[in-house]
Amino acid sequence: MNDEIKHEPSEFSVADMEYMRRALQLAAHARDAEGEVPVGAVLVQGGEIVGLGWNRNITLHDPTAHAEVMAMRAAGERLANHRLSGATLYVTLEPCAMCAMAMIHARLGRVVYAAADPKTGAAGSVFDTLLDVRHNHRIDVAGGLFADESATLLREFFRARR
Which residue of the set 8, 11, 68, 156 is catalytic? Predict the structure, then answer.
């Protein structure tokens, strides 16, 4: 993982921790209510939650229905704007390339994720999509907030399915 995105828990604010706890609740909801891979996302703008999401790609038969996309869709609808300029997205798993590009197009200001994704992570683990300087928009990225809790949710989910 890139040094740019490794953060100590003390570097995160109390608000960061509260929003990530909510994202973890949404991840558990995805698992328990819909049998989905437990990933949750919370989108915050101006100190207010404007979008919530959890994985729904299996339920909706939609390969784009990742937690991050669902949160951005909800926020876009609520704010009546496809741009979510300056918003912060909290997500329990490092975004994939698809979600990362959607975040760039939406003009998010910051992404905070819990667990790194060693298979498809696009914030430095596998790809540097969110960190690539060639984009016309930059997003601040912070990873590792409640990483153990998120990784445990994911590990237990996949262990139970095997």
Answer: 68
Which tens digits make up the pLDDT trace of 112-132? 999 999 999 999 999 999 989
4 or 133, higher pLDDT: 133
The neighbouring-strand residues paired with 89 are: 43, 111
Does an H or E element contain 105, and which? helix 97-106
Non-local (6+) Cβ contacts of 80 within 8 A are none
Global pTM value:
0.93
> Strand runs (DSSP E) across 28-123, as ranges?
40-45, 48-54, 88-93, 110-115
Task: Name the token pair of 81.
Answer: 């704007």
Residues contacting residue 136 through CB under 8 Å, at least 6 positions apart: none
Specify whether 48 is catalytic.
no
Residue 162: pLDDT band with limits 50, 70, 90: confident
Q: Quickly count: other Cβ atoms within 10 Å of residue 24's Cβ.
A: 22
Distance of alpha carbon 162 from alpha carbon 122, whole angstroms: 26
Q: How far apart are CA 73 and CA 76, in angstroms?
A: 5
pLDDT in tens, 49-78: 999 999 999 999 999 999 999 999 999 999
